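Subject: complex prediction, re-run

Hi both,

The earlier run crashed halfway through, so I resubmitted it with identical inputs.
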Amino acid sequence: MSFLLAQFLSGLAQASSLFLVASGLSIIFGVTRIVNFAHGSFYMIGAYAACWVALTVDSAAGFWGGIAAGALAAGILGAVMERGLLRRLYRSPELFQLLATFGVVLVVQDAVLALWGPEDLLGPRAPGLTGRVRLWGQPVPLYDLFLMVLGPVVFAGLWLLFHKTRWGVLVRAATEDREMTAALGVNQSHLFTAVLFLGCLLAGLGGALQIPRGSVNLHMDMAMVVEAFVVVVVGGLGSVGGAFLAALLIGQLQAFGILIFPEITLVLVFLVMAVVLVLRPYGLLGRPPVEARGGEAGPVLRPAPPWAGWMAAGGVAALACAPLVAGDYALLVLTETLILVLFAASLHLLMGPGGMVSFGHAAWFGLGAYAAALVFRHLGLGLAVGLPAAPLLAAAGALVAGWFCVRLSGVYLAMLTLAFAQILWSVAFQWTAVTGGDNGILGVWPGGPFAARWAYYELTLALVVAGVVALRRVVFAPFGWTLRAGRDSPLRAEALGIDVRRHQWMAFTAAGAFAGLAGGLDAFAKGSVFPTHLDISTSVDGLVMVLLGGVQTLAGPLVGAVVFHGLETEMLRHVPYWRAVLGGIIIVLVLAFPQGIVGALSHRFGRSRDS
Amino acid sequence: MSILSRLSLHGFLALAVTAGACGAALAADPIRIGEINSYTGLPAFTIPYRQGWELAVAEINAAGGLLGGRMLEVVSRDDGGKPEDAVRTANELIANEKVALLTGTYFSHIGLAVADVAARNKVLFLAAEPLTDAIIWSKGNPYTFRLRPGTAMQAGMLVDDAAKLSARRWATVAPNYEYGQAAVAAFKEKLKAKRPDVEFVAEQWPAQGKIDAGATVQALAAAKPEAIFNVTFGPDLAKFVREGTTRGLFDGRAVVSLLTGEPEYLVPLKDEAPEGWIVTGYPWDQVKTPEHVGFLTAYRNAYNDFPRLGSVVGYTAMKTIAAAIAKAGSTDTPALVEAMKGLSVESPFGIITFRAGDHQSTMGAFVGTTAVKNGQGTMIDWRYADGAAFLPPEDEAAKLRPAE
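This time it finished cleanly. Structure:
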């Protein structure tokens, strides 16, 4: 019994740490609707800055001063990011800021590496709090007790700030209804900067307070950001109280989960999120967001003029001739690029016409890849069966997951797709007997007529072109128009007798099938499949490609895939600090083309008849 | 679509030109070695490793190169920590850079992926750092050799000392992926063989990089083990050590820990390094054999820093490649593969041999006890455990491999 109480306290300390970071994220999203992907980076900056100060000024004042400095540094940088970058993107399509913050993530990773070096840093322990006390005969670290108190104190402080100050009232008003607040003459510009400052300050504080518990390292950002998102979504976006509750829930489930099933840490938070979102579509304490007024429908997609079709045909013909001049490696890169084009195009069906953002599209890509590889390995059947199996299994998976997902909207929907992707990832990771675990499945090479690189390239080209044309068909078919109607005005669409959810569900499944085909092609192109195919980073890559190219055009994701993959591949080969350069390029592109590359180009050159 | 096709055309034309330019090789041309590692993903481990092989390359070229004056030229690439990027990069090195052979990799899954590409393209691959035993045994292939002692060997080195402890109740904590699982399985099996009376009373499997240290430490303590086998490393280890020390988990308990004595993991812990743990590692400041002192001096002169274990691995990998090319008398793959079998190389740890039976080198590791001296973690009472003693006999090991 006393052991269980001590375990409960461990869970509380962990929950406090989670809450600090998640509350900042929740506030930022609540007010600005920015999905701050760089939140983990500010957490890491806070930790590094605090650790550096504490190690330089080796005293109690140094330690506590370091905590304050870490939090402040993160807060100030957050405000700078808002002023210098995000501010210019508020008129861009929803989630476009996510792309900008992704660029910031990459830049921060390399900046921290350059500033503080590759080795993990071990900061000092908290002066006066290094020991432990015995409660019910169980040792409990003093610092854990400190964190347990600090979490609720910060929560109370935030409550007072939001309820007893004018600024806090404005923040709550903006969270509830941003447009109305603006209409009442509140200067949003200052409000947003201040909110970013506060949110990032909390992230930095959360990071700084981790110093006494372990080392400060370069993987902190990614380890934290996803978990913080989960807490925010489980709690309900914009709800600080919800974040507090969710952090408690997750901290405790983690502490007790490992007693029963130690392997559970891999997937626990995502299981919790999936269950909560299925039962409560807006999280524990969240409320449905206020519908944006003015019915700002997306621009109407129209078929490209005939000359564009001829140019596309010419481009395909040129690509088909590529094996005449390109070497083996160039063909491999072209094959990969084509596969990513199909992957991005399938995601675009969801995000563009479907109006559903997915953070877990890698699930269907990976499921397709595993389908091909498993057929190959366990049934001994080659490409002829493996490749058709890929879209089928992916579509089956998407059919099941989609049924749950389309009941949600916005970021909740996106996070539920992430939960499904992570659950699939953990199955692939843990089920070693079937999937080979983290070492993956190797030797999945195409045999027979497609063994040669050029032959496989031509097969990929044919299937990708067919896939992209089919997706285009879907968009301009009555189904696609109906889908867009549901996106732009669900109420009016329902009134016309359209089953919006059903259409979204079908679109979700179709997108899954095409992503699965891309995954199957990828398995045979690389000869191997790993859990990384299902990984968050694969989903994020897809998202970046679509946003970079432009959500509101059909060619956007294609261009985005080519640009992003081309950049990454070349950077990886030649530039030591390639992440910073890639991040910098993304930021510049985002600022130069706030509608995405193709979006901006088509905006500038004609198509004015649509607007 | 027009932009798409233009960009791609542009890309592959440029690539095709490069490929053509390095096509014709002349006798005095350098010997090109392809090298891949997770330089941005794991800089703490891979930068010392790179410094190690750069030192070896400088020494080999200063001594006049190989095969009658041909210099060694390394084409080094980052894999970004992803197997799919490593596969593409390996293809690039083979097809475009026309490298004679491949080396490198740190993560096991990346090592396996590159090994597969090497086998498909019939190119020699010297896996430097991956610890998984699948790379030499269950998924071994004719073209892949492995330098560093694998998981089973390292676990075996610790079992001798673990078996001498009086402890009968053991608990394990390991990261939840192949490396952790294989290490725990090997340790359990070998310890049970020596000490049938031991029982394993608890196991914890934190996700790599995400340990909830407080809860994990308490869960272990609750099982009241007499000894603990630890496989966590890096940031997880720092958290585990801090929580375990604060909560008194290690008081009166023996801890046997894989890799913790390597400077990569021990140095960042500073004066909080655990004391009295039985570990595998590398006491870089205390090994006084002439071959190690020579390496240490050269390394410190070159970089004004002390070597990590990765430095030794990188250095030895490049020396192995040089020895193989010299023995083969050419850079043709079949000759290189034959030369690698039974090849003896002078490493900072003494002479090591690549076994013909399973392509594993006999490089060993140091086994000792951790201590804190002058505010730094270090190893005491250590000995060198020769890898050959912890490998199954060659004919048995050969049976673990797929038929060629």
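The first helix of chain B runs from residue 2 to 21.

- K.
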